[in-house]
Amino acid sequence: MDQKMMRRRVDVSNSINGVTTVGSWYKAGHFDNDEQALGAFKLAYQQGLDSMGESISAWMGLNEDEFAEWMKNDTLPKKMSKC
Asked: What is the pTM of this model?
């Protein structure tokens, strides 16, 4: 198995063995501000381009609509509401 295949097989999930996505961290409010989050999303996007995860959107933790908005104008996804 080559390095590219190994990168594609990284477990992107909230399981104990998985990698939590930047989208999950952002939606849960774990960044100090949107500028910090934007930098993390840009890094995750670049990592996706470098073949991390099954797809770029999955590596970033974005659904189809959120990823389309990101690609249009770097729009951050909506955060989860606090109860």
From this structure: 0.82
